[in-house]
Write a structure and sequence with these properties.
With 634 residues, this protein is an all-alpha fold. The chain has 18 helices and 2 strands. The chain has a two-stranded antiparallel ribbon.
Length: 634
């Protein structure tokens, strides 16, 4: 159970100059607003990445396609993969990290609010930097995996790969800043009584994800730095003739890349694990096992990277070792699937849009998992590794897994973020178009791959047995495009016109649903004390037992301002005498300076731009570090 005491008395304090308009967003350090910025930015790039995918599918709709050239196709599939991984799924997960973690653990903010703002602005500027390459006719074209020697200066002399390398370096800084911030937040800012085994599953999966981020991103940073030095300064880390080794890139990239898969999927695991108990009206089956399996996935994720490299000739011992670890990691993943099914079994299931996406996630992710286990066998992998079978596999994991889980979380938490419900009618249209379109797009790719269709080809001749599969996949992609437009329309429409949700429209069990929707800037007027894993269900049960049987399940006992009626705005932090971090532009200015350093590097190694960016970054950073976090305005 969660208990609170009476809040401090309200006092009148003048409003801040940053409370309204554009400045309030540019200067915000509120984790909830930063979460919304991540959400809106990622949805925008989802549209861009989806458009790139649709063009790819239209090019491959039939044999001898002429919609785009080979060079443009290379740019499209490189940017599509990079966009969906680094500019869509990761920031969508970050949106939920930002918005939910402090609410779920009973905290007023993250540990480092200004670092949180800095991580968002660095992400945004890095994303814009990378996509600015289109304006120069130099979009990255070496594949989202960047294999050397194809990405070295000898084979890619233009700026295309430079934009990719430097853009990923900027994005990596953002991810590391965010990872350290949330790790510190979860460790240090949990409410009294919320020990680790009382944390919501989403917070647990986010906790594991932050460890993966801070351990995996330095690896890709090293790989990118070596490539950057080779391209800019003539070193030879990946040049065979000079004693380098192109396979070093593959080892470093996949040593990062496979933990990255779990960075992308674990947050979706957490969201689904929040949704299912609410809509089955029963606790998550096997909570401790779900926690331990998530930790084990994170641990084993660093031991399977070379199953991406069975075709490079590592030898039977290495192949066997990585084949075994790949089989092992399927065990904790399978445990999660069975626990979700056990949660559904015997539950009083409410088929809301959120629940349907969660159930669809289980089905589609299972398909992706089964095809992934097939690649633990080196002989099978040798036949499939450069075919469309693998394209089908990782899309079932990334879209059927990560995106379906994120959609479940979006429909579930939209009322908490906005105070309004997303349209269930449009939501169900979105679900069925997505579920059917997903399978139409990617399931035929299994057969195209088994029939020999290679990956990364921009066209193919007639009569090779791939025509039907590609035509069906293209129609499925068109359906997914319509589904995405329905979702975006639902977001925009419901943001202002959606039905008001109240504080807890679903009858949920976790702490964040005790708050006003949307929550006030300070989250909790008084930090709650937590005494169970599902404090709201326990609180409601105690409340019902003290009242007549006709009390509605959604009724909440009035404890503090966070449980006020939905139409009653909560008092401000100033009225309650709660001091919150002061809005500031310094993180934004620091991020501009940091990005300018990389702009100068790509712009013919312009020393003035690099020095100007360095100066701006250092001055803003010192101003940020030397100023107090909380300033009392007169």
């Amino acid at each position: 159970m969660a208990t609170t005491v009476a809040p401090p008395p309200a006092v009148a304090v003048p409003a801040s100059r940053y409370e309204r308009g554009l400045w309030s967003w540019l200067a915000t350090v509120d984790h909830k607003r930063i979460g919304q910025l991540y959400l809106y930015t990622a949805v925008t790039f989802f549209l861009i990445g989806g458009l790139e995918a649709l063009i790819i599918r239209e090019q491959l709709r039939g044999p001898n396609g002429t919609l785009v050239s080979a060079e443009t196709y290379n740019q499209l599939f490189t940017m599509h993969g990079t966009t969906m991984i680094f500019l869509v799924i990761m920031p969508l997960s970050a949106a939920f990290f930002n918005y939910l973690i402090p609410l779920q653990i009973g905290a007023r903010d993250v540990a480092f609010p200004r670092l949180n703002a800095f991580s968002y602005w660095v992400f945004l500027l890095g994303a814009l930097f990378m996509n600015a390459s289109w304006l120069f006719g130099a979009a990255p074209d070496g594949g989202w995996f960047g294999y050397t020697p194809l990405t070295t200066k000898a084979y890619a002399p233009g700026m295309n790969i430079d934009f990719w390398v430097l853009g990923l370096q900027i994005l990596g800084i953002s991810s590391l800043a965010s990872g350290f911030n949330f790790l510190t937040t979860i460790i240090n800012l949990r409410a009294p009584g919320m020990h680790l085994m009382r944390m919501p599953i989403f917070t647990w999966m986010s906790f594991v994800t932050q460890f993966l981020i801070i351990l995996a991103f330095p690896i890709i940073t090293v790989a990118l730095t070596f490539l950057q030095l080779d391209r800019f300064f003539g070193t030879n880390f990946y040049t065979t003739a000079a004693g380098g080794d192109p396979l070093l890139w593959q080892h470093l990239f996949w040593l990062f890349g496979h933990p990255e898969v779990y960075i992308l999927i674990l947050p979706a695991f957490g969201l689904v694990s929040e949704v299912l108990p609410t809509f089955t009206r029963k606790p998550l089956f096997g909570y401790p096992v779900m926690v331990y399996s998530g930790v084990l996935i994170g641990f084993l994720g660093f031991g399977v990277w070379a199953h991406h490299m069975f075709a490079v000739g590592m030898g039977p011992i290495a192949d066997s070792a990585f084949g075994v670890t790949t089989m092992l990691i399927a065990i904790p993943t399978g445990v999660k699937i069975f626990n979700w099914l056990a949660t559904l079994h015997g539950g009083s299931i409410r088929f809301t849009t959120s629940a349907m996406f969660a159930i669809g996630f289980i089905a589609l992710f299972t398909i992706g998992g089964v095809s992934g286990v097939m690649h633990s066998s080196p002989p099978a992998d040798l036949q499939q590794t450069d075919t469309y079978f693998v394209v089908a596999h990782f899309h079932y994991v990334m879209f059927g897994g990560s995106m379906m889980g994120i959609f479940a979380g979006a429909y579930y938490y939209f009322p908490k973020i906005t105070g309004r419900l997303l349209s269930e009618r449009l939501g169900k249209v979105h679900f069925w178009l997505t579920f059917i379109g997903m399978n139409l797009t990617f399931f035929p790719m299994h057969f195209a791959g088994l029939n020999g269709m290679p990956r990364r080809v921009y066209t193919y001749a007639a009569g090779q047995g791939w025509d039907l599969e590609n035509m069906v996949s293209t129609w499925g992609a068109r359906m997914l495009a319509v589904a995405t437009l329905v979702f975006v329309y639902n977001l925009i429409r419901s943001r202002r016109q959606g039905e008001r949700s109240g504080n807890d429209p679903w009858g949920a069990p976790t702490l964040e649903w005790s708050l006003h929707s949307p929550p006030p800037e300070y989250n909790y007027a008084v930090i709650p004390t937590v005494r169970s894993r599902y404090p709201l269900w326990d609180l409601k049960a105690a409340h019902r037992s003290a009242h007549e049987p006709h009390e509605h399940d959604g009724d909440m006992p009035t404890l503090a301002p966070e449980t006020l009626a939905p139409d009653t705005p909560p008092p401000t932090a100033r009225q309650l005498g709660i001091t919150m971090p002061t809005p500031t532009l310094k993180p934004l200015i620091a991020s501009i300076g940091l990005t300018a350093i990389f702009v100068g590097l790509i712009w013919n190694k312009s020393l003035p731009i690099m020095l100007g960016g360095t100066a701006l970054f250092v001055v803003a950073l010192y101003a940020w570090l030397l100023s107090p976090l909380e300033e009392h305005e007169e």
